[in-house]
Structures are given as structure tokens and as C-alpha cells.
Amino acid sequence: MRRGIFLCIDGIDGCGKSTHARLLKKWLNSMGLEVLITDEPTDNPIGRIIKKSLSGKFYLPVETEALLFAADRMQHIFKVVRPAIESGKIVITERYVYSSLAYQHARGLPMGWLEEINRWAIEPDLTIIIDLPVEIAMRRKKRRGNLDKFERDLGLQRKVRENYLQIARDKGLKVIDGRRSVEEVQREIREIVKHLLGTKF
User: N or C terminus of the chain: which is more exposed, having fewer CB within 10 Å?
Assistant: First the structure.
């Protein structure tokens, strides 16, 4: 049995991660490929604690939050992501390690420490960052419903965007201009993934 592929679609809140993950899954399914979409934080017990904190139900120090994100990620890798990849599926995750680096570094934590606590997370075969100006992203989010505490903070979101772009430069990640139409953005994502499929399958 061939090993599956691990894809990550990342970027600031409101950049279109969920939309493009769903469209990519539909396209891959049309080629007869099995696809699992997942996201972070998860619905496991650790992830639920994080979600309650993000919704404002209680406060967590940023250091605690960072450790919980890393723990939630490792539990998810062990229980869901790695088994799916080993069974030959394509796994698409909305958010992953670079999300923690971008957001938690923007909130004051050292990048080196964040990388260390996430050192055991498996590396995706491909990470795509959808870049979008914060003002556009927030307008999109407001149309869809309530914003969490990260999403309401435009200053934080600007720092996060800068961090994503710097991480992409440092790590050689693919960056896509999210200001274009959904069709144009999805077309570019598919071209990038098509190239990866050609090298893996």
C-alpha cells in the first residue's frame, strides 16, 4: 500500500482555508483519491479546552495555550493524521505548526521555544499559505458570524500576517495571493498540488 500525502492550507483568519480545503477535496475525490479534511484546534479533550478559551469562557496564559496547542496537535497526529496517511489517504489540514508559530510569536512568545515544543510534529508534504490583507479577511469573517478573541484584534492579525510571510520566506513555503476570486485561487492551488501528485504517485 502506498503512503498517502499530508497537505496543509494555512493563513490568517478569513483567508479562505476552509473553502479551498473543501474545493480541493472535491477535485481530488473526482480523481478517485481518498481525502480527509481536518483542522486545529481539534474536537478531542485538549482541543475543546482551547476552543473554550478562544470563545472567552475562561482565560489561559499564552504559554499554557501554546503548550495545549502543541499537545492537541500531537494527539491528533497520533490518533488521526498518521493512521490516515499510512492507509494511503490524502490528509488536508486547515492550520498546523506554522499557525502556532505565527499567532503565538505575534503574542510575544519566542519563536525558538515554539519550534521546540512542536519539534515532534510530522512535516507536511506541502504547505500553502493563502495571503490576504487583514482588513479584507475581517470583512469576510464578520459576514459569517461571531469573531473569537484573536479575530477581533486587528493589530494582532497584522503581526500574524507578517509572521506568516516571514516564515514562508524562511521555510520556502508556497504563498498564494488570496485577494483574487475563489476560482483563481483554487486553480493555482490545484496546479501546485497536481505537481506534488506527479512526484508522489
Answer: N
Q: For residues 39 and 93, give the distance between their C-alpha atoms in angstroms, rounded to a whole number.
A: 5
- Whole-number Cα distances in Å, 36 to 10, 44, 72, 80, 94: 16, 17, 18, 9, 11
d(CA 81, CA 93): 9
Which parts of the chain have pLDDT scores under 70?
1, 144-151, 200-201
Q: What is the pLDDT of residue 150?
A: 66
174 in Cβ contact with 127 (< 8 Å)? yes
What was the pLDDT predicted at 141? 77
The CATH class, in words, for 5-200 is alpha beta
User: CA 189 to CA 194: how far, in whole Å?
Assistant: 8
